[in-house]
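Work Package 3 (structural annotation) set out to generate three-dimensional models for the target panel prioritized at the project kickoff. During this period the team completed the workflow that converts sequence records into discrete structure tokens, so that structures can be stored uniformly alongside our sequence database. As a representative example, we reproduce one entry of 348 residues exactly as it appears in the project archive.
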Amino acid sequence: MNVKTWILAVTLGGLLTLGGCSGGQKPAENEGTTGSTAASGGKGGPGPVEGDFKVALLTPSPVSDAGWSAMAYDGLKAIETDLNATINTQEARDTQIKDAMRSYANQGYQLIIGHGFEYNAPGVELAKDFPKTVFVSSSGDGTAPNAGAFRFYLEQGCYLAGMMAGLMTKSGVVAMIGGPKVPSIASTFKAFKAGAESVKPGIRVIETYTGQNADIAAAKRATEAAIAEGADFIIHQTNAAAQGVFDAAKAKGVWAFGTNADQNSNPTGVVIASAVIVAKPAFLDLAKQVKGGTYQGGVVLKGMQEGAIDFVLNPNLSDKVPADVIAKVEEMRGKIKSGEFTVPKDEF
């Protein structure tokens, strides 16, 4: 497959998809299924919604971050449009999370989505007090009859990014810049590192966390430090602070990868490809189950096989990527989608 054909296939695939992150025994992840009777002990969640369907979204960063929170907001807007739902959203972090969830539940919201691993435990805890509300987080392993998680298998896209970095690096050093060190982010970095090492044994992979989701200056400093150590490809998991990573990469003349959303159009021009979550189908599927009364608490995994994850080369930079690199990445993409290869991920 030549470069132009590969880019066209990826672009069309993305458009078609857009149309439509312990102790004891852990619940099974049912890939491609949005409810697990095993995880909920066979007990159903709330019944069908009567009257106004109200859905709330809690995010760790602004929904204008062009990344993690923005793609969740796209999913929420799809629920509003397709299901005629009343929606609301707010940033909620740390001690704000439980209060925000309780407030929405008291207002009669039937579905509360917490977009991140940190929302799982509070949702499961509150679920018993609000049996008519479903609490779902993006990552996590805690469940109740009316609570659970859907986990996006972003590790698949990050593995391909790692492969590209490993195949193209000139310095033999690449870097991963994260915000808070939470299990869902650490797992995507594990996959990126594995991808890089699979094609370039002995490659050095720098891993840095700023501890902040929205501190652009901190992300820029961390990226500059990694570049000073030789990194010439950078992947991030910094939510709203991603611009700091891209700005540092631009200033120092190195490449970066987008994550969560397609960030290839960032004006710095340094994002060579993006590991993308396509959230709308998963959000809509969840909301339909809640509205129809069929939701059952559990943990599910959404990946490339379901069209929930993609790896998108920046078409404006295709001439910077050797044809043999594209061929190797595309070959691995096929193996991932077919199930021939399983991308490593942490269990949490």
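Residues 3-19 form the longest helix (17 residues).
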